[in-house]
Amino acid sequence: MSDTPAKPSNAAPAGQTDENKGEYGEGNYKAAREYNEETTAYAQSHSDEDIARTARDAAKALDGDEAADLEAAEAEGKSHAKK
Description:
By secondary structure, this protein is mainly α. The chain has helices at 29-45, 48-63, 67-79. The longest helix is centred in the middle third of the chain and has 17 residues, at 29-45.
């Protein structure tokens, strides 16, 4: 027998807090829902021209002076992904 006490059946799995308890499987459903709601609100509150301008600005950033910083940020984010 192990000296480690048994984990109560209602305890959150390792790495889960009370805040995200009950969220299982791939992804965070609450975060996905909030992202979708905010993206929809942005699209509804901005003109097609504003959105196109924002997309062009983002594309320029990928090719401009910010490219190295953006690539470093992407690599940092990917380093935290589950494999």
